Amino acid sequence: MLGVLAAVGLLFVELLKSLPANLRVHRTGSAEGYSDVSLGILLGVAPGWILLGILSHAPAVTVACVLWTVLHLALCVQMARVRPAGARRLWSSAVATWSLLAVIVLAGATGGNAAASLGAAIALSTLLYGWPALVAGMRSPSTLGLSVMTLGLKTAEGMIYLVAGLGVGLLSPAGHFVLGFFAYGVLAIGYNAPVLVRTVWQRAAASAQRDLDSALLRVGALSECTTLVP
User: Fold this and answer.
1) Global pTM?
2) Predicted confidence (pLDDT) per residue in 25-76, tens digit
3) Residue 32 DSSP one-character state
4) Which pLDDT tens digit goes with each residue over 82-112?
């Protein structure tokens, strides 16, 4: 029962994680806070995630990864339109990541250890994608293009994968440690939580500034009316 709930929860997380990100970029027309290299690496490793779900006998992960791949591809296309200067970096990062992943998996399959090789490759790609994403999210002038809901759900998703990777029977068979799941969980939390905190802080500060400006305008208008009254 716990496994079914976790599977359903994972599908909802993937859907709710990706849609707000796509909609925010579309609505704001801004790519601020995003790294083109990070987006490309994620797109390139997507087939590996699908394969890992299959090899780990985790159908919920497989379906969730297919859903995420489609939505992430849509985000990449939208990002290339909003920020054309970074399109080449995005697509070349995707191709390079996919090629490296294919070589590692084929080498692992030759040695009869495809799942472990795939898990290590995903852990490495997560490390590589996460750093530029963290830097972009923390150093960009603003986080206008980022979705608070997406960042929060990415952090929650990291927690789910971390626990699942420990082999407690959450998303994969009990007693089956999955390196790719575990590594992704640890790194997803570490990379997304700081950007989430910064984004929430910036939105709260901007909202407070708007409220202050509005209050000052009302006070100014009231003062003018008072002055005009004889």
Assistant:
1) 0.75
2) 888 888 888 999 999 999 999 988 888 888 878 787 788 888 889 999 999 9
3) T
4) 999 999 999 999 999 999 888 888 887 787 7
Q: How far apart are the first and last CA of the chain?
A: 76
Q: Are 145 and 33 in contact (CB under 8 A)?
A: yes
144 contact partners, CB below 8 Å, separation of at least 6: 28, 30, 32, 33
Please report the pLDDT score of residue 6 as a whole number. Answer: 65
In this structure, are residues 170 and 159 in contact, taking their beta carbons and an 8 Å threshold?
A: no
Residue showing tokens 């849609």: 19
Provide the token pair at 97. 């990541």
What is the distance between the alpha carbons of residues 195 and 138, in angstroms, rounded to a whole number? Answer: 6
Report the C-alpha gap between 56 and 89 in whole angstroms.
32
Amino acid residing at 168? V
Q: For the residues of 101-167, what is the DSSP string, one character each? A: HHHHHHHHHHTT-HHHHHHHHHHHHHHHHHHHHHHHHHHSS--TT--HHHHHHHHHHHHHHHHHHTT
Locate tokens 């590594």: which residue? 183
Distance from CA of residue 156 to its chain's centroid? 11
